[in-house]
Amino acid sequence: MQGSADSNRQERPTGEWVTGDEPMTGPQASYLETLAQRAGEEPPADLTKSQASRAIDDLQKRTQE
Q1: Beta strands of the chain (E only): which ranges?
Q2: Residue 24: which residues within 8 A CB-CB, separation 6 or more?
Q3: Are the beta carbons of 4 and 40 closer than 8 angstroms?
Q4: Which residues have CB under 8 Å from 65's CB, separation 6+?
Q5: What is the Cα 10 distance to its own chain's centre?
Q6: Distances from the Cα of 65 to the Cαs of 1, 4, 27, 41, in angstroms?
């Protein structure tokens, strides 16, 4: 079975996002809160979209999500 187009697409580094400097989205904030709780940490606040994405990646690795 061949991979989907999404799995073959390369992601742009978060630092190159056009909207990366905008405040994180509601879904990002909610997911960060969930992951932080699972990690026994306070959720980060006032992040940009790109910062939130990196924080999510980090917490996912640490919580095995």
Answers
A1: none
A2: 32, 47, 48, 49, 51, 52
A3: no
A4: 35, 38, 59
A5: 16
A6: 25, 22, 16, 15
Amino acid at 11: E
pLDDT tens-digit profile of 5-61? 444 445 666 666 667 689 999 999 999 999 999 999 999 889 999 999 999 999 999
| Those residues with Cβ within 8 angstroms of residue 21's Cβ, 6 or more apart along the chain or in another chain | 48, 49, 50
57 near 31, Cβ under 8 Å? no
State the residue for tokens 């997911």.
31
> How far is Cα of residue 27 from the mean position of the Cα atoms in its chain?
10
Q: Measure the CA–CA gap between 58 and 37, rounded to whole angstroms.
A: 14
User: Which pTM was predicted?
Assistant: 0.70
